[in-house]
Amino acid sequence: MSSKDETLELVEKAIDNISNIHRAHNLLRRLSRNSESVRDFLAEELLTTESEVYSSNSESEDEAAYRPSKRRRIPYAHVRYQKCAQCLEEFDITDNTTGCCTWHEGELELDYEADTWIDWDEYAHGPRDTLQHREEYPDGFTWTCCDEPGDAEGCESGRHSTVHGEPPQKRKRYEYEELREHTGTPLSFHHSCNMTLVSANVLDRHT
Predict the structure, then answer these.
(1) What domain of life is recorded for the organism (predicted)?
(2) Could you tell me the residue ranges of all domains in the chain?
C-alpha cells in the first residue's frame, strides 16, 4: 500500500471517529473557504437552484421521470436539505411532493387514564409529562387532533414545510410548559416570543 493510500485510510478512519458535530462543521467551513473545488463540490451537494425547487413542486410524477438528471449551471438560491416545521424531519426541497409529510395538527397531552401511569407515583418517580417521558412512554400521551397515542402516524398529510428561524408552534408551547413545571414560574404563551429570552428572564427571577 502506498503512502498516499495509507494517508487516505487514516483520514477516513479519523472522519468515522468524529463525534463532535462542531468540529465537523468547523472543518467543512475551513475546507470550503480554502479550496474552490471543495466549495463547488459542497455547493453541488448541499444547495439547489430556484428552477429545481419550482419544478419539483409543480411537475407531475410522469414529468419528473423524464426530467434530465444533469443539473444546469445556474446560480444557487436555496439550501437543499432543510428541517420540516410539521414533522420535524430533514427533507430535500427538490423532492417535496404531496403526501411525503405526515404530522399532527393538535397538541400532545398526558393521558391520565393510560395503563402506563397505573403505578406511577409522582413523589417517587417525578412528573409524568416531560419531553423524556413523551419519547419513552408514547402510549401515555394522546394527540388532541385525533385521540391517537403519542407514537401514532400523523393524521394530516401533505408536503413538507419550513418556518425560517422558528420551531413549530406546538413544540414551542410544550417548551413553555416544561419550563414552567421545572421553575415554578407562571408563563403565558406568546407565539412570537423567543425561548432564549424567556429562559433568561426566568433565570433572573430565580437568582
Answers:
(1) Eukaryota
(2) 105-153
